[in-house]
Structure formats: structure tokens, C-alpha cells
User: What shape does this take?
Amino acid sequence: MRDIITLDRLEMEAYLRIVSYPKADLEDTRKKLAEMQKLGVKALCFEGPKKIDNVNVLGKGYVGIVVLAKTDLGKAALKIKRTDSGRTSMQHEAEILLKVNKVGVGPKLLGYSQNLLLMELIEGKSFSEWIKNLDDLEDAVVQRVLRQILEQCWKLDKVGVDHGELGNASKHIIVRPNNEVCILDFEAASTQRRVSNVTSICHYLFMRGKISEIVRKKIVNLNASSLLQALRNYKKGPTTSNFKFILEACCLEKFPEKIDQ
Assistant: This one.
């Protein structure tokens, strides 16, 4: 059963280390609790697939711990900066989210502070979990999901944001129950690196590893040599036409989602 803990109870030892991870620090926790109040957080719900000292959380990364939060507006995902992250604040990640939200990518940013990032809660399965049920999925459903992933990566390329971790995207792509896709976790994202979202995701989905072997079962006519050439052309010029050539090589061009010119 999940633990729903109001802010006034978060100074308890069991939860102190979650808020002030990896080493419990009462002063740091109190600072973060004050920031939570300003963001409208009422309580934290300790549930999810990850565990820290027997306490469940939604996620654990190099920069922060993600927990389910109850807010004035309902459920949300709250990322709490780790004390050992090396980041002075969550501002950079918040600015990245604002930028990608404008093109319909990523969870919506709901608010942020020095130590916190409040985001839309994305519920569903990681892509690697979702694809395990391949035999129960219609080809058209799989191919539409794949197209969504490629298009979202293309949008990131267009706005100059390199996600940085899509070469192994298992944990960074969520497929909602309605088969809509959301790319998560922009803590390693940059606007300074050369973007490689489309090329990275194509290697992950179609060209190497167990996931690509599973995916190719649903794309019988995938032309690997054509895809490699399309990716080379795209790296030279990430144009709309070159992106369409990638879709064609991946046998995804027959799903005519709108592609902005």
C-alpha cells in the first residue's frame, strides 16, 4: 500500500533521506519543504518501481529523485535535486522543458524552484516494457508508436535540444495506455551539443540491441542499407525531405501524421 505523507511529516527519518538524498540533512529538507509549499505541493505519495531504503519512488537519476506529488491541481511528478548532483539549481532542466514543451514534447512543466522540478505526471509503460507485448499488438499500432517517437525526436532536433540519452532510450520513452508517446528525463539535455536525437533513436529502435530485434519483427521490409544512407544524408542536412527519407526507409511513411515544413 502506498504511503501518502503530508509535508509536516516529511521530517520523519524514513522520508528525510528521500527528500535530502543521499545523506539525510534536516536543514536541506526544511529548505525543500518550503519550496514545495510555494509550488502548491500538499503531500508526497511514495509509490513506484524504484526503492530507496525500502521506500518506493517513481525514479532515481544522477540529478534527482522523482516522487509522486499531490498538488492544488492534482497529481504531478516532483523531481527533487540530490545533494550530490553537482547542480546549483534545477533552472537549466526547467528551461529545457519549457523549450521542448513548445513543440509538444516532454511532460509539461508545472513549476520549478532551486531544488525542485514539478511536472505533469506521465502514466504508462516504458517503451521496453510496452514492446514486450509485441505479439498482442497490431502492426499498425506498433508502427504509429514508432512514428511518433521519430517525429518527437525530429522536433527536438529542430529546436536544437539534444536529449543526450536516446542511444539507450528504454527508460526515457513512455507509452501511455492510449498508445501516445512521451519522451522523459531531460536532465542530460543540452542546447550546446550538436543534436543527434533522430540518429540516436534510429540506432536504438532499428539497428542494434535486443529492442531493435523485437521491433524489426513488425517491420518486415526494413531496408537497413537505405536507412543508413538516409541517416547519413540527414546528418549532413536535417531537412524535412531527409527526415521523410528516414521514415520511408523504416517503412513508416504510410502513416501520414502532419509534418511541419
In short: Residues 54 and 108 are 29 Å apart (CA to CA). The chain has two domains: 3-119, 125-249. DSSP finds nine helices and twelve strands in the chain. The longest strand covers residues 64-71.
